[in-house]
Amino acid sequence: MNFKKFLMLTILTVFTMTGITATHSPKPVEGFSQQVIQHGAVGEDVIELQARLQYLGFYNGKIDGVFGWGTYWALRNFQYEFGLDIDGLAGATTKQKLVNASQYDKAFIREQLNAGNEFTYYGGTPKEQQVKRNTQNQGQNQAQQQQNQAQNEDTSPQPTAVNVPAGFSQNDIDLMANAVHGEARGEPHEGKVAVAAVILNRVESPTFPNTVSGVIFEPRAFTAVADGQIWLTPDDSARRAVLDALNGWDPTGEALYYFNPDTATSGWIWTRPQIKKIGKHIFCM
Amino acid sequence: MFRWIVIVLLAIGVIGTGVWGYQEHQEKNAILVQAENNYQRSFHDLTYHIDLLHDKLGTTLAMNTKEQLSPQLIEIWRLTSEAQTDVGQLPLALLPFNKTEEFLANIGDFTYRTAVRDLENEPLTDKEVETLESLYEKSGDIEKELRKVQHMVLEENLRWMDVQVALATNDQQADNTIVDGFETVEETVKGYTEGNFGPSLTGTSKENHDYQFINGKEITEQQALEKVRELFDIDENTDITITKTGEGAKVPTYSGSYHTDDKSGYIDISTKGGHPLSLMVNREVSEPKISLFEGMEKANDYLSKLDFKNMEMFESSQYDNVGVYNFVYTEDDIRIYPDSVQVKVALDNGEILGLSSRDYFRNHQERNISEPTLTEEEAKDKVNPNVEIQEQSLAVVEDDLGEEVLAYRFLGTLGQDTYQIFIDANKGIEVQVEKLKVAENKYE
């Protein structure tokens, strides 16, 4: 019986997780916005930047809306060729030069990004030849596309990729968010970051498994894993807490253990040198 | 007639329930067995790996040439890692088994250190051979004890599920052969770990650097409160809770926190000097109104306001509506990577949402950076010729063993990927080769 419940929960979780997609609200912009675009940025300006750089043949990567290293080198090469300061920043002058030298067919790019097509955008080649249609769920996408177009001709193209902290994947983040939600639901933000930080400290520690999943699934290490609460759907706050921890925040002061003093059943845990209490949990070495 | 129909229906119901119940029972058993099998696999893997480890340690003692020794040491290093993974899979979390895990980690560190070294120029010292010998001996003892447990498990058909139950009920009197066996293993190791690796091995841990730059007078709780209020930039109307860390803290801190309806904050400042080590502000952040670039300027201003000098941003990333910036300390244009500080900025109004400076305070120190013996060109020759180098500079980085080394940093591309390569500026070896992160596609 328990197993079935668990299975249902798992299925539910998977469904809801796949249901989560980016929900940036569209904002109409003519050409580039005013901002200086730098490495690490995400958004429509980056899509335009990548498209224009590709149009001129500097950028060979995917147009995905995330300013990564490929975009950085392309931009620097462009700045070099056009006699600009080579700083890898897309400021006013650089953007003006780009706009003058290239074209940006927003409707075309949006259509391809929305449809999930593989495509390139080199100048001088007919656009239609540069698209490899995503055949897997075309029907669905076309319907969606038509709906999109009918709704608003002016929607911005959305990035198709996201930044992730070095060495971790979105799956790692989701898994950790699940664990944090199961363990620290109802705790303040710092309490959630603290739990995530303990997981990461354990990965670093020589006395624990060396992977995130190894640490989380270590039998009897986390009660939420043992009683299935890890498969509850995490809310956004758990995810944000995990991102903070992955980006270097550790409110625990390098703790390896924590416990709830009201419910702890093990006497051994009380013998660990304690560091501090955050929310309901005591953190210790 | 009607009665018969009822009887038949009830009979079908009873039989149906029975069949269903039986199936459930079967399913439950199947799961139990599966879980048990997982434990068994890990346990037997562990004993196997320890066996192998022992044998390999033995053979290294008979080896002399670098060509053989290095791969062998690497192999041992790999085995310790495997064995550690196996331990992690067993339900021993509440059983004191740390000494054994530490022992494995130490073997790993020791073999890795010696394996990556050029054994041609620096052969094993007598002391190191001695260490190897004692490791060999000790791993033999562990092997013996583990084999005993293994034998009992097989002979008496012991189940790991029972261990789990025994540990879960936390019955101190629980007479469980496996638990007893592992406690014996732990006892075996205990007598050994203290001080046998010599000072050479304690220098490997990253936590070695000891917050030497945290200076100043001890501050009182009242002073801490004022400092926290100033750092959070909130007035007297908001209550702040201040607590002090316990004996387990590596660096004693005051922690301050506040919670209002739409915002909360948490901060750690050192009791010595009141330096901020970590600051977090949590609130809903709406659509970005400022760019990642403007956010960086805010972060820059913030750091100079807090008196962090000569900081240079080396990495910025936008996550939804916040920007996260990584800064490093620079000295004569040399980036000191261990002294890093992270700042988080809300891109809706430019407010600072976070600061993490533990790494900075742990590692920052007065450094005497000497001139490199290799020129940039010489170092460049050491880089894989397929990598197209785009940028180069001098930097101080930590090597695999946590020691700081002066290195040339090369940023280069190979195909679509960008690599960061650090070449030791004195010895010319590759300190670190890293493929830089790329954005990950969304799953739609």
UniProtKB/TrEMBL annotation, chain A:
A GO molecular function held by the record: N-acetylmuramoyl-L-alanine amidase activity
Cell wall hydrolase SleB domain span: 186-284
Peptidoglycan binding-like domain ranges (all copies): 43-98
UniProt keyword annotations, A-Z: Cell wall biogenesis/degradation, Germination, Hydrolase, Signal, Sporulation
InterPro entries linked: Cell_wall_hydrolase_SleB, Peptidoglycan-bd-like, PGBD-like_sf, PGBDSf, SleB_dom1, Spore_cortex_SleB
Domain of life according to the entry: Bacteria
Signal peptide: 1-22
Location of region: Disordered: 130-166
Ranges annotated as biased composition (Low complexity): 136-152
UniProt record similarity statement: Belongs to the SleB family.
Name of the protein this chain belongs to: Spore cortex-lytic enzyme
TrEMBL record, chain B:
InterPro entries named among the record's database cross-references: PepSY, YpeB_N, YpeB_PepSY1-2
Species assigned in the record: Aquibacillus albus
Domain PepSY: 374-428
Residues covered by the Sporulation protein YpeB PepSY1 and PepSY2 domain: 180-369
Sporulation protein YpeB N-terminal domain mapped to chain residues: 27-162
This protein's name: Spore germination protein
